[in-house]
Every structure is written in C-alpha cells, then in structure tokens.
Amino acid sequence: MTAGPLGDLAGRARDGDRAALAALTRRIQPEVLRRCSRFLPYPRDAEEACRRALDSVARGIADYSGDSLFTTWLYTVVSNSARQTYRSLKSRSAELPAEAERIPQQRDPRTTSVIAGSRVDLLEALDQLERDRPHLVVPLVLRDLCQMEFGEIAAELHLDPGTVRSRIHEGRKHVRRSLAVA
Fold first, then answer.
1. 88 and 29 inside one domain
2. Residue 8: strand, helix, or coil
3. Tens of pLDDT along 40-89?
4. pTM, entire model
C-alpha cells in the first residue's frame, strides 16, 4: 500500500535505492519537524528529535513493509523519536543541577528547553502512562498527536477499530488524571 509519490519513493528507498532514500528524507523533513514540534515546543529540541527521526527512517526503511501507508509508519517513527528525545533531554537536564539553579523559576514552556529544566506535562503524562499501561500509549499518540484516523491506527497496529477506540479512550482518561495532578 505505497499510495502516491511519497509511498513510491519509500518503496524504492526500502529496496535499496540510495538516491530515493536521500530524496525521501529531504521531502519528509519539514513534516517530520512540524510533527516533532507538537511533542517538543522548544525549536532546538524539536530539531534534535527531527534529526533522530530522519536517522531512524534512514536506518529502518527496510523495516517498512509497505502494508500500510508510508506516513502511518513514519508517524510511529516520529512519535517514538520525539518521546525518546524528551527522555534523553530530561536525563541530561538531571545531570546538570548547577545549570538548572541559574535559570529563573518563571519559564515559558513554549520557548524553554527541557534541557533548561522546563517540564512538559504531556510528555510526563505519557511516560507515566507507558509505565502503567504501555499498550495504551501508541494508539493515543497516533490519534491525538499525529492526528491519524482510527482506521489507519487499527491497520498499523493490527487491531480491531473498536479496540483502538477503547485504548484511546482509556489512555485519555489516564493522561487527564496525570495532567490534573501536575
């Protein structure tokens, strides 16, 4: 199911065409950055996640089976990359306590890096959800952050659409509770 020019390019890249892979990564870069920005509001953090996602695409394109739309596979890679970048930035931030002390307490989370000590509540809530109910995270992220349709998510995850809707509903309840506590 490699519908459209992007899918065709992904198929050629998957089959080992290096020029197609280079063209594919150039073509998807703006969309990947835009989607990473939904997870990480600070531009440098989103750019780091974008680089990681594009690297993951280049390394893992052979894993793209072609059974679903390329964008469905891509959005999964992007969400995983953005969440992993957040964890990495958070970990690096914890290793630099002296730096965090010099930063003013009032920060605008839209312009302050996780490295600088800002707390991105949604990502924290997703991390908590992953610890408590890991099977709920991917459907929720694909629907609410990647804005994929229920049918696309069901096809990507090889689940019944009703199961996908149920997992998204449960995931939202858990995330709401986490955000209410934050």
1. yes
2. helix
3. 888 898 999 999 999 999 999 998 888 778 988 898 899 889 989 988 88
4. 0.70
